[in-house]
Structures are given as structure tokens and as C-alpha cells.
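agent> Task received from the user: take the single chain below, predict its 3D structure, and emit C-alpha cells. No templates, no multimer pairing.
agent> Plan: (1) validate residues, (2) run structure prediction, (3) serialize to C-alpha cells, (4) report one or two observations.
agent> Step 1 OK, no nonstandard residues flagged.
tool_call: predict_structure(input=
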Amino acid sequence: MNINVTGINKTTGIDNGAVQGQTTAGNSAAGRLQAPVTPQAAREAGLRLLMNLDSGDVFTGEITNITNNEITIALSDSANVTALLSDALSYNIGDVASFAIKDNSGERIILKSLDNPGMKNLMNDQTIRSALQNAGLSMNETTVSLVHNLMKQGQPIDASTLNNYVKLLDSVPDASPEDVVLMTRMGIPVTEENVAALHDYYDFSEGITAKADTISSELYHLIAEMSDDNPTQASVFLKDFINTFSEPVSAAEPFVNLFNPDELESITDNIIQFESAENIDSDNVISDITRNIIIEEFTQKITDGNITAKEFINEFAQLSARPDINKHELSHFIKSEEFTKIINEAIHEQYFIKPEDITNVNIKKLYAKIINDASSMNGQFGSNSGMTAMLDSMNNASSDAQFLNNLNQFMNFVQLPVRMAGKNAHGDLYVYSRRGSKTASPDEIKALLHLDMDNLGPMDVLVKLKQKNVTTNFKVADDKILQYVEEHMDELTARLNKLGYNVDNVIELNTTPYTFKSSVIENELPPAQIKRFSFDVRA
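)
tool_result: status=success, residues=539
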């Protein structure tokens, strides 16, 4: 089957997604306005176009994004698909190319290049051809890409080296030639788990922070579902789950730092409803008085803000276990937005280190904690079929921690939630110290900060410090955010000037974003020494 996808040249009036030999229902866009298509809708439309294609089927589209071994292809003005492609990096954004379906199992799509000009050039490279011939290896996209990546990293391409790398690639099917070359240079074992973790960190999109978000979401949905039948059982289960975690590296934040006054009032109002006589079969006056005193003391702690998410969950479970509690109101509160946030905080406090607590010892403690907690959770809840997805997420976080332990042989690295203006945001901070470099200034320090915030979107900040001179380079997502940052840049400059620093700021659109792979791994391979910190802050 050959799918002829038109519209990639932005021509209107064409029925997008026409499949050769088939009739496809569609509406022409010519002569009328249409609502903008969201990225999610475009992805879903792309999947619908390709879901019925089999291995060997061919389609054509415009490349709109490339990340490691993933490529995003615009199939039309309103449809795109992201798929795996081993030689994705040999393409350029804007190329119009043809691809064959290599595997199409569910939402996992693996492509094969058909007309990659970069790969064609590499295939004709005499050095690459000779290296493969001497190693007794056939020429294909994988072996050619392997030699190319070794040459790019200044590594040997003798027969022994090439055959050893081919064995690594055969043992880990999800690894690309670039993966195994970079991981070997960093001294990281090439395993399925480490390859998956490396991909998490390639472009700042995943990692422990994302795993914590997933665990929190899965836990909330499980508790909410349990509360339909038995809200008391749900709250007690939540308590048992949270208490399975070992002590966090940094002290948990109290409610006063987590919720605004309106949110605190909403939480207390919900809990006061537990006193309602509806659905309560208690005629015991002493019981009623005791219940009301417990609720009053509980809500006072919340109002004062002197309680953590974990402490709240423990006291909430004790309160919910009383027979004279309104179960309907209990279930209602468990499904509330405020309770969702409490669960989220209880999970996230397990995965962050406050800036003042960042030490090599504490970073190692964090990795050990994540690994040990996953093991404990599997031991206690492994037989619960309803927790399979959540335990898988915890095991993935454990694999990431194992990867970070390995990565620490090359650099100090930790990924944790960052809190900006009361919102959770993904954040990473890398601090570079290139003492081993012959070209770098010994008194110059570089830092790379990546933020992904709800309101400002992705933002990268490269900071260079040399003596008392500071240079910042901001990369933002669009013109609106650029204007916003420009309007507030004087505040940053004034604060740094007050500390005695001379400041030079640059702000630009994020056309070529910094990435962990390109800005850190590739640029800071030995002899560079890198320390990376990510922290939980309030701004």
C-alpha cells in the first residue's frame, strides 16, 4: 500500500490523507475558515491515518521535529505522527521524505528510511565502507550509522571495536548506534533499562520528575475508584501506601507553603461536612462530641498550615475509620481537587531535595531511597492486580535512579520537581566546571537551567560567570513569552547588580533549544567535569 499524503506544502482545497486506491471521506478546507487544530488533535488524526497500515506500507510527509531516534512527520495540515526511526538524526527539519512501516503495534510505530539523503551520502563514504569491509560486516543503516557515530566522537573504527558494538546493538534492540557510542564513552552499561533512561533525559522531557507525576496520577485514580465502594478503605489504603516510603531526604513542606488561604478554607469546609447527620447511624452523644472535637482539632491544624501532606493523610485515615463519619461526604472529598493536590504533594515530597540540602551524600541517599522504595512497594503491594500500572511506574523510577548512579561516574546528576508560583514545573540545572580542559578559562563557570512551566512553557537559560561578569542567554517558546521576559529582565539585572555583578542579558526564540544530549553530554564529554543540580524552589 502506498499512502499519498498531500497538504504538506500548505495547499488548501485538498482532501488530506487520501490513500491510493481507496476512497477517503473528508471535507475540503477551501473557501471557508476552520478552527485551529490542537497538537493533540493532530497527533490523534495522524495515528488514525496510519493505524491500519501494515509492515512495508509506504507514506510521505514533512519532517517537523527530530529528537534522538524519534521523528515527527506532518501528514497533512491537521495530522502528524511521532515514530521511532534509527537514523532520525541524519534528516533535517523541513525535509519531505518517504518512509516504510517497519512495525505498527498499537501506538508504537517504527519506521524505515526510504530516501534519506544523509544516509545515502554515508553509504557512499569510502572510509565507512572500508571499515565495515575490514570488520566483515554488511552495509546497512545500522552499521553505517555506527561507524559514523564512532568517527563523530573520535573513537576507533577497527574490526574488533565494530564487532563489539554490533553485539551490543543486537543485545539491546531499542538502542540506536548513537546510544551505545555515547553510553560507552560515559562508562554506562548498555542495558535495556539504561537505554530507556537515557532516552528519558535526552531532551529534558522525562526522568524521575515525570515518573513522580505518573505515580501521583495513578494513585489518585486508584483511591478515587476505591472510594466509590468504601471510602474508609480507600483512605486507609492511601495511608498504608504513603507510609511504605522511607523518610524523604529533605523535610516535607507544611500546608502553609502548599495551599493558598482559599484552598485551606475549602479543605476545612469539606471536612466539617463529615459531622453531618446524613447517613450516620449514631445516637451516642459521647461519640458525637468526640467526633466533633477530633474534627475541630484536625481543621485547626489545617487552618494554621502546620501539617504536611503525609501527616494529613495519616490523620485523615484515622478520622475516616470512625463509624460516625458521613461516608458520602468522605467519598466526595476524596474526589475533590484539593485532595488530588494533597496526594500529589505526598508523592512529590519523596523525590526532591531542597537547595540547602544538596550534597553528594544526600544525592546518593535519594537514589538509594528511590530504588529501595520501589522494592518495598513491590513486596507489599505486588499481589494487588489493581496496582500493576503504578508499580511499573515506580520500577521505572527505580531504573532511572540506577541509571543516574551509573551516570554519576561521569557527572553528578539529579532531576527533581521545581515549584514556580505554586505550580509544579519540570526543572533541571546543570553546573559545568571544565578544570580538565586546556581551552576553557579556569575561573569561568557555566550553568544551564531548563524549565518547563505551565504559563511560560519551555524555557532554557544558559548562564556564564567569569569573576564578576555574568552573561545570560534565554531561549523561550514564542514572541509573547519573549516580550514578557524582556519586560521583567530589569528586575533580574537589578538584583544581580546589587550583589556586585555586571550583567549582559540575551533573549531569543527557542529555534535551536538546548538539550541534555547536545548541550551537556556531547559538549562535556571528558575531560570536562559536570555537576548537575535540580531543586524544589518557590518563586
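agent> Step 4: summary for the user.
The longest helix spans residues 208-229.
agent> Done.
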